[in-house]
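Notebook entry, structure prediction.
Reason for the run: the old model in the group folder had no record of what sequence produced it. Starting over properly, with the input documented here first.
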Amino acid sequence: MRMKDLEIYLLNDGAVKVDGGSTFGNVPREAWETMVKPDRRHRVRLGINALLIRTGDVNILVDDGAGAKLDEEERENRGLNCNRLKKELRELDLSPRDIHYVVLTHLHYLHAGGSTRRTRNGDVVATFPQARYLVQRNAWEDALSPNELGKRSFNSEDFMPLEKSGHLELIDGDYEIRPGVNIKVTDGHCRGHQVVVAEHLGNRFIYLGDLVPTAYHLGLPTISSQDQFPEDTLEQKRKFLTNAERDGSLLLFAHGTDTRGGYLERRHGKLALTPVAV
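New structure, fully documented this time:
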């Protein structure tokens, strides 16, 4: 999607299958199963998306997928079919060296796994060698010492090499990357979770990360059981969705599959999403 000198592309790194019950939290299966069908292992398919923002001569990548470091057995165990992001960039005539900023909404492996790659000699290095990786300090601290509930969501090889190589930049709170392109802290899903909000020539869009991971999560009570602070998620969802309806913002979903973006509108007094291709 182009807006004069700003372009956005929702890229896809593949898909993951996750337990439907945990994905939809307190929503009963009989309700969420009308929206998405689980497989025989009660798993639902989610996309693994990343956002590319091109503004002037600067390329900003928001999240970078699951990457390619997990072995075949681990990918099978986690229901992963991934590692498409570099191909998606090539189709836009970009290489990893062309990325100037990588914004990680948080450090869970589905969002930060592509931050590093393994070289032929076994070293793990930054995938985007010219980029500054922007991470909330709170998210970094939690990833260094996760508790038993969150431990499986992190892979230290996704982010520890970034600190050693000097690519990591820790930030505290909201942050302007470029004029009109801003990071907003939401917490909720985890400490230091952040989203990206951009505005250009009256057009506004929001990449929601795991605050609202899919269009199926637009209902305020629909919050994953994996969210560490669901009350905070609820508060932030209410704020962002209210503003998005008022401002006509384009919503972009980090785990959307068939519906990866759209606009909110009222139909017969109820909030609905008008999907758009992104």
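Summary: The longest strand covers residues 6-19.
The old model has been moved to the deprecated folder.
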